[in-house]
# Entry
Amino acid sequence: TGLRDYFQKLGFKKATLGLSGGIDSALTLAIAADALGPENLIPILLPSQFSSSHSISDSIDLCNNLNCNYHQIEIESIFDKFLNQLGPLFKGTEFDLTEENIQSRIRGTLLMAYSNKFGAILLNTSNKSEIAVGYGTLYGDMAGGFDVLKDVYKSQVYNLASYRNRLEDTPVIPERVITRPPSA
# Structure
C-alpha cells in the first residue's frame, strides 16, 4: 500500500530496480509487482564476473514468474576499465572491499541513468538491518528514489518472502533465493 500510494500521489507510473538474485531485491520486485503491476516494472540484471550462475538464473526465473520484462547489462568490461584506470594509483595493494564497491557503484550509475532516461523511479533494495549498521555502498546499492524495505529488518525479509510465496499455488520467489545464506 505504501509503494502504491506513493506512486499514485506523486503521479509516477514506472519503476526500475537492480535484481541481484538475492532475497532483498527479489522481495522488492515481488512487492512492486503486486503494488504497481508487472507491466510498470523494469528490473535490470547487472552481473559481473563474480556473479554466480544461479544468481542470474534465479533472477530470470523470478521475472518470468512475475511476468516482468527485464534487461541484462554485463558490467565486467566496465569494471575492468575502472581497474585499469585505477591501476597506477592502486599499485602494490591487494584487491579488497574497495574494488568490490566499484561494482556496486557501476550498478548504481547504470540504474540511475536508466531511471533518468525513462522516468522510472529507481527502487532501493536495502533493508532496515543494513541501514542500521551502515552496510551499504554510497552511490551504489543505496541509490534510489524509494526504499521499499526501509522499515523491514532482514529477519522479516525472509518471513515476508516465504509468506509471499504461500499466496500462490506456485511460489514466485525461487526457493533457493530464500534458503541460501546471504552474501556480500
Remarks:
- The chain has a mean pLDDT of 94.
- The beta strands are 15-18, 41-45, 71-72, 121-124, 146-147.
- The helical segments are 2-10, 23-36, 53-65, 76-90, 97-118, 128-133, 154-166, 175-179.
